[in-house]
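User: Structure please.
Assistant: Input sequence and predicted structure:
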Amino acid sequence: QLHYSVPEDREPGFSVGDLAKDLGVEVRSLAARNLRLVSEGGQRHFQVDLAAGVLLLDSRLDREALCGQSPTCSLHLQLVMENPLQLHRVEVDVLDVNDNAPQFPKPEVVLEITEVANPGTRLPLEVAEDPDMGSNSISTYELSPSKHFALSINVRGDGVKMPEIVLEKALDREKVPVHHLTLTALDGGNPVKSGTARVTIHVLDANDNPPVCDPPISKVLLEENVPVGTLVTKLNVTDLDEGPNGDVEYSFKTSNNAPGKFTKLFSLDARTGEIRTKAPLDYEESSAYEIAVRARDKGSPAMEGHCHLRVELIDINDNSPEIVLTSVSSPVQEDAAPGTVIALIGVKDSDSGDNGQVRLQIAKELPFKLVSSFKEHFSLVTSGPLDREKASGYNITVRAVDSGSPQRATQKTFYLRIADVNDNAPNFSSPFDTAHVQENSLPGTSVFSVSASDPDEGSNAKLSYSILDNGMQDAPISTYFRIDQDNGTIYTVRALDYEQDKVFQVPVEVKDAGSPALSSTAVVHVFVLDENDNAPNIVYPSVPKGSAFHQAIPALAEPGYLVTKVVAVDADSGHNAWLSYQLQESAEALPFQVERRSGEIRVAQALRESEDSHRLVVEVRDNGTPSLSASVVIVISPEENSVQDFSKSLDLPQPSSEDTNLTLYLIISLVSISLV
């Protein structure tokens, strides 16, 4: 809290204090930290020079207009700085300057005194007004020289000096019916200022006893907010005269400078002298009232006395605390460290004493706490970790309770949003997935869609998918598959060949758009489904395309005689590779038959002598859909004395190392698929 003082007569632009020095910050950082000034009263009297770091006067101050007759005059400001958020309270005392001269309510005062008045008789005078305070207010009074009158000064309970003219020598109306005096009021300023009033005293006959108030100065304690019409006091006034000279009437005595200040709140019975309330009294508006009453008799000439009553109010707890949110930092990052300032909160209660002592409370289950900055100002700071994924925001209710009896409370609720931080990696619904795709599918065929989720929000939850190269195939995996980076759908890049690759391991990575980005991976096993895309291949007998295979058999071969054997293979698998052998129909009946499964060609019936050669077309067909086939032409020639050496005639090709390797690969693939 900073404290400065400034005289009230300074011109705008006057330097009040060096904020940068007193705050302990560099001048060049004030603009970057968005230093701003908040006036608690609503009127703007000051401004901040950010270039010089000083507090300047924005308008000329008038202490009397700002604080009236208050003994102290202070203006309260708040300085708010960001990065980090800080609040400083500035109190500026407005110092009084002797810029007002004393002034009497009336330029001329007319008094009356009976000629029979005894020496020592006092004639009260109007009190001069001086808006200045302290030593600049009224210091003393002076009366012009007189043979009959002198000046007496009494001090009232509130410190106000009341001048009275005292009769020192008996009067003789026949000699001097009127006395002219000059009353001067002097203040204590430097230089001294003064004001004068002409005092005219008429000397009268008869009614020689004025009304007397007992006691002349009294004090009454009264609770604020008492019902209208409550009796405050009844004045005790006596007049030793009789008849009309002793009949007293009461009236309020007011000054021109403050007419009706208390007459709006109190009523006076002119006959009985009872003072009652006629409007609600508020301690917060004024804690005490000075009431001056004139008691005047009906004599001729009339005489009057003066009663002074001080009404002091007793404060009751009739004002609820007021909560002021000076600043709120919303949203706040979910990774904010404990102790981070969330809000600056001010509280005030117009009551006094215990009734104005306020404490703040928030719910204990919230990850926040209140820290007292200075009087009536608090900081709301984090007390524990925040997690946006568990709570995206908090409704924070601040409750203010005073210490009065009964207690009064008020509360204010504001919403604090938690900003997301990229603290969660995306997760796949399953780390391993299985997909199937038909071989020879067109490029761009959808294979599978992976799915991942991220509990973060915004760009931290925006996901993109990509395929990683695992090096398991001869070519990069990206030459076989691609993935839609937005929705995770995997597509083929080219047609797949079951006979070349039966299964693929496709590593998929999902990455969010946070900073730094977080990621996770999953593996999709893509199995290629076989398609009947390979026709049977006849490996024996091996003849050029368009040629026939010639086979000689004994002319007297018996039925069942093994002529030859057709051997074929199919690169497909499963039922697509199940082969069957058959003879194509011909116009003539052939004495041969072929075994459907083995491909063996045997003599079906006895051959006739001198029988010609026979042309057979053997067709090999697989079991796929649609079925594919291959055929070979075999010319069988019966010959005399021909002995068939089947082991030689059936010259089956020995499996090459390449065929052996193919068989080994097929076995390994089948075992791998079974294990998966």
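The two ends are 75 Å apart (CA to CA).
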